[in-house]
Design brief:
28% strand, 4 helices, 2 domains, mainly beta, five-stranded antiparallel β-sheet, signal, single chain, DUF1996, DUF1996 domain-containing protein
Length: 340
């Protein structure tokens, strides 16, 4: 009896666990869409975050070779994107891309049958077509309640556009001609039901919040805010994902993460990610100053919106036979990231 109760508690903890890549900046704003318009130019501009290797084509083996990503976990070389939101000037009609960021949630939602949750396979593409009941747009503060259409008043704390992805896969196709038939939403509830027989593989659920600083611009009524696809209502909101995860690490996080706070440090497989750097001295301006990973950001050269290094820990070790004269021998120094 005790073992059954313990197993139930453990399963419940994992089911309620999740993690978040919060406050993720935009990597690039560009008219590319490697899923819908591979090899060409997309129909509208997207705000894209994730791996630096994003291009108009998607190849998993190439994407995971990206130099860096602005996702805190460097073993996630995926890309995440949504249509850019613009401000239209009342007098000139000119469009300005408003400052944008992302909160990306990974949510194990097994449904009533407690179906096993699987990681995204290599090469997997996951779109969300405009589906009003699966998306909401609302204020980023305590203003009017969220709804499907864009708010009809200024949002003093900014705007938050949300999309929940389908989490059931047919188990065969990494994409489909219409970019949606290979996946489906769960049956009872789009954010927590069981998978249909046609799409029996239950994947980890993805949920995006795209935050936009609309409060930095004048609001002049309907038409002030325009998504890049021409949508002024919010009903055309959609999102896309292309997988660049270390799939084994993602599955370990799904199986073992027990934190219910969304904090990566509460998810053991992700918090334990380390890098190894071999040398006899600190270089490139690195110091032994200790900083938590979430306060540390190495900006990539030539792109202020891209962060290299993420939240991976850097462990420096010296050996007495090759130790630098200024450093004690036989010691291991741990700090969060070298600053360059």
């Amino acid at each position: 009896m005790f073992s059954r109760i313990l197993s139930f508690v453990t399963l419940a903890a994992v089911a309620n666990a999740y993690w978040t890549f919060g406050g993720t900046p935009v990597l690039v704003q560009t008219r590319l869409d490697s899923i819908v318009s591979p090899g060409g130019i997309g129909t509208h501009v997207h705000a894209i975050t994730g791996a630096s290797g994003f291009s108009n084509t998607y190849d998993y083996d190439q994407l995971i070779q990206s130099n860096c990503t602005n996702i805190p976990i460097q073993q996630d070389k995926s890309n995440y994107w949504m249509p850019q939101l613009y401000h239209r000037d009342k007098d000139t009609g000119a469009f300005v891309a408003m400052p944008t960021g992302f909160n990306i949630y990974y949510l194990p939602r097994p449904g009533p049958k407690n179906e096993p949750i699987k990681a995204f396979p290599k090469g997997f593409r996951l779109p969300t077509p405009p589906t009003p009941d699966k998306l909401t747009v609302g204020t980023a503060d305590d203003g009017p309640p969220e709804a499907s259409p864009l708010p009809t008043q200024q949002c003093s704390g900014g705007l938050r556009a949300q999309v929940f992805f389908p989490s059931c896969w047919d188990g065969v196709n990494l994409d489909s001609p219409d970019h949606k038939s290979h996946v489906a939403y769960p049956i009872q509830a789009f954010n927590g039901g069981d998978c249909p027989d046609t799409h029996p593989v239950h994947l980890i659920s993805l949920f995006y919040e795209m935050t936009v600083a609309v409060n930095e611009f004048e609001y002049h009524g309907n038409g002030t805010w325009v998504f890049a696809n021409g949508d002024t209502t919010g009903f055309g909101l959609h999102a896309d994902f292309q997988n660049g995860w270390d799939v084994d690490l993602l599955q370990s996080a799904i199986d073992q993460c027990s934190g219910e706070s969304g904090n990566l440090l509460d998810c053991a497989p992700l918090a334990a990610v380390d890098e190894c750097y071999c040398d006899n001295a600190l270089k490139n301006g690195a110091t032994a100053a200790l900083l938590p990973w979430y306060e540390c950001a190495n900006r990539c050269a030539g792109n202020d919106f891209e962060i290299c290094g993420g939240g991976s820990k850097l462990t420096l070790m010296t050996h007495h036979a090759a130790a630098h004269p200024d450093q004690p021998s036989r010691r291991a120094v741990r700090f969060e990231r070298e600053l360059v």
